[in-house]
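In line with agreed milestones, the collection of sequences with tokenised folds has grown. A representative record is reproduced below.
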Amino acid sequence: MINQETLLLVILVFCRIGGCFLLLPGISSERIPAQARLFFALAISLAIAPLVMGQLQPVVKPNAETMLFYIVTETLVGMLLGFFVRIFFLALEFGAIAAANFVGYGSVFTPSIEAAESTTPLAMIITLPATALFFIMDMHILILDLLQRSYTMFPPVQPFDFEPTMLALTATLGTAFRLAMQVCAPLIVFSLSINLLLGFLNKMVPQIPAYYISMPFLLLGGLLVFYFLVGAILLNFQMSLSNHIMEFMGRG
């Protein structure tokens, strides 16, 4: 029977799921209509609500002040879960932009596929397939499982525990930006090696215009290095993200 408490329960579930979808890669893209994102979040909320009814029934009360408090906290918990995944994509884009700057592609900008701001073509070539693989490899199903398990990890009836959450966030930041260094490391090493060799050449033969010689080597060589490594970069990224989500789910 659908009553007032049932509707309030679905609203609380929608707040957590909608908060997660606000930051989740792909789904949060501005290129997806807001109506589509809204109805998708509502559909997932209706599917998950019967599974978490036991955890939410103690806090579902027809009291305006209490419900407003739980609506805010549930939205913040959902945004936190989405941010745990979003960090990896931000780190991947950061590493790709850094690598593009080292091999001479940093001064060229192109509209981003997912975000509103512009980015480098090299970063877009990496982040767009990474977002596509996120859905192709069914990692969004892991996110839905994580959202269901999150009611055990972050139960609404208990006060929010900041210490383990901040420790998990710190560990996630370390893992994500270590991955970013792995992404840009080959191109950084290549760039430093070419510049070092041409620096020695310029010292031995000052008449050689080292800058005009190094730039074609950096542009073409960096593109070749990226061509041979982009598959490994994307595979390493997806495996690291999947392992991190599974590890995070295991804590629940």
Notes: The chain has eight helices and two strands.
